[in-house]
Fold:
Amino acid sequence: MTGPRDKRCAACGRSISAREVYYRFKLVLEGEQDVLDAPGGGGPEEDLEALVQRLSEGPEDARELEEQVHWERSGVVCAGCRSVVVRTLASASVDAGPH
Structure:
């Protein structure tokens, strides 16, 4: 009978043995916008049609566009990386503005 398998830290790549403490994480980034541009004079149907046409003609890949709106990752980190991640996210200002 085999026991739990070792896990790998998502941050540093180190193998975490089954006897070590590790931390699960789930990170979700969701795009939002508070103010939308005023419609171009047409009704909602025309605006939607123009958007669909612009997206279909544009150079962007559909998957890339989707990840700009919703990006999600999960995994585990070791104790050392946990403290770095917590420090990084805890020190970030709520309204940091553009980078």
